[in-house]
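Consider this today:
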Amino acid sequence: MPDGTCPVTLAIPEGAGPWPGIVMYPDAGGARPAFREMAARLAAQGYAVLVPDVYYRSGDWAPFDMAGVFGDTGERNRLFAMMKAITPEVMAADAGAYFDYLAARPEVSGQRFGTTGYCMGGRTSLMVAGRVPDRVAAAMSFHGGGLVSDDAESPHLLGPAITAAVYIGAAENDASYTLEQSEILDAALTEAGVEHIIEWYSAAHGFAVPDNGPFDPAAAEKHWWAMESFFADHLA
């Protein structure tokens, strides 16, 4: 990797392959057992799924308790500091290395890949689609935050560069992605000619990840169906 060695999980289906590759970006809690299980479930649909430790620059970092991290001042500050280090430049540089790794694996087919992500990872998925457009064929974001902001590096401004099909799975109860922001993102992607879907889930931020407090089984199942359909249409 650009700045060290990144531990990864690569989940592959049973059989001979090769299969299309997908990078699954975890939420702010980082790579952990919940995401290894999610990667295995997505792999069973016929994909080679890579879950990276996006915090590899932090060394052997202690895992977070996602049920209580935001109520603990020290843990919250540690988490935010690690999140802040994942800049758009870091996202793009790391993504290039992840894609090169997938392309070199005998289990993986093709040179363009899928991305999916949750919370912070949902933003990363969209950011990578705009910053490394020649490598991304399909990009999905679930309860992603910060997709529209006043920042000059806001993901919604990357529409003209995106060549992937885009899916946004938004939570109705989510202060990090509002209806107004969604309208801005929709308009930006439409103006750029990006094929995209924005779908609302009757759930709260964090609905798709099993070890999150707001996990919603019904909404999570809906998101699995969405991934199966979207990647089948745009990646398989």
About this structure: Residues 8-234 form a domain with the Rossmann fold fold (CATH 3.40.50.1820). The radius of gyration is 16 Å. DSSP finds six helices and seven strands in the chain.
